[in-house]
């Protein structure tokens, strides 16, 4: 029984990662479907509706969303890497400093769990910042291809809302990332200070303090 307990955090982390990738991938897949519908036109898209609603298509869509989520997550991470490195340089001047801090924090499961949760939110915000841009482009293309009343107004509203959401997700990612690095640096400083032996006293004077 006790041997199986250490697997629980790993299983929870794997489940959370799967959900993150799926949430990001669903948005990416939706934008691709809208673009495909815009390219195909109304008549062809109408013929594909029954196929898209079938059970095999739903299973394929779930698998495709997961795969596309991985792709978009890596692409978003690459695109925002310069900003991420700039935010990390203040508390951690080098990659080795950051790696040591992560290892130190891993020794405290409660703090490590909070850091994992923050990174989960960061990855979702990062992916959806890109998704909102893609969905805006796809929706504008669909509005231009299909007949719609007040098309100009709809284009303006779609573009405004989409880009506003993209900016909001980017701002959230920026804030969560910067705060996470600052908290990590402070937590590691506190853990290091707590692990240091008290200075200025003899071994006999520090023994009662250690036992208390």
What does it look like?
With 212 residues, this protein is mostly helical. It has helices spanning 7-40, 42-52, 55-89, 95-105, 109-145, 151-195, 203-211. It is elongated, with a radius of gyration of 24 Å. The relative contact order is 0.12. Mean pLDDT is 83; it is low at 1-7 and 201-212.
| Assembly of the depicted chains | single chain
Question: How many E-type strands?
Answer: 0
Tell me the major beta sheet. Answer: none
The Cα radius of gyration reads 24 Å
* Residue share in helix: over 70%
Entry keywords:
mainly alpha, 7 helices, elongated
Write the layout of secondary structure elements.
Blueprint: H1 7-40, H2 42-52, H3 55-89, H4 95-105, H5 109-145, H6 151-195, H7 203-211
Helix pairs in contact: 1-2, 1-3, 1-5, 3-5, 3-6, 4-6, 5-6
What's the gist of this structure?
The protein is mainly α and 212 residues long. It is 86% helix and 0% strand.
